[in-house]
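The following block was generated as part of the benchmark described in Methods. Ligand: (2R)-2,3-dihydroxypropanoic acid.
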Amino acid sequence: MPDKPVLWLPRRVSDATVARARRDFQVILNEADTPGTAEDIIAMSARVDAMMPCHSEHFTAEVVARLDPRLKIIANHSVGVDHCDLAALAARGIVVTNTPDVLSDATAELAILLMLGAARHAVHGDRLVRSGAWDSWSPSFMVGKQVTGARLGIVGMGRVGRAFAAKARGFDMDIHYFNRTRLTPEQEQGATYHHSLDSLLPKADFLSLHCPATSETENLMNASRIAVLPDGAVLVNSARGALVDEDALLDAITGGKLAAAGLDCFKTEPGGNPAFAAHENIFMLPHIGSATTRTRDAMGFRALDNLDAFFAGNTPRDLV
Ligand code: DGY
């Protein structure tokens, strides 16, 4: 029997994923669970046939140019592939896959949490109660912005955007969206299509971003686009930090243009933006959109399905 292919797992994935990976591959684990550096990736490429990285491992053009020819496939444990220079990898003939579908509900749930938390002063309220500083109540105390029936703008109606819209319908939100292509009426379910972002933004009392980070979407929400949102809008980002100009967001929060923001993604990760910390109307989480037990197993299994297909000589389902 031929030797099993060698697979590197640079991060600590779920136990079920590791167990299944061990069945079919010779697995090299990174017990320390530290992000794989450029030098780690390059060194490991001479020892393995496959890698299952996360968005924390960066396959830049410089890294890809130095990969050993032994490495044949990068089966990402993520739906986002903005950490991979796809053109450089294609030029080296290295196959790249991702894990779509399986994390849509978990990420959409988190976007709902961000939207509600931002709208209803979750950070301020939690601090008051937790610190023992809650010493009064009045009808004008911590009055927030109601989600039910409000206009919701969604940028990017892919799998996560549609899962988010489905959950937002539970709040009777009036859904508007911008997407490169219009959805079918069955998929739209009454949502209003906008052919441009400029048309969508003035309608978005709540705006949620669900598009990938690419050179076209970098700083998509900049000062001029934030300016055309309705006054007091709430911005939600559970996609990628690159989509938002963080200085412009801060100006809009301090100037009162935005009532609040809910963010799971930042330009700098890990770490976030320390300048946001003083603003309790910015509700922040540390990039945990897909972090549920069920979804982590599903992501690992989807990545392994792609690897199994590749090493069986078939085209992986989630070829990027
Ligand atoms: C993804 O899958 O892209 C999530 O952001 C987690 O990496």
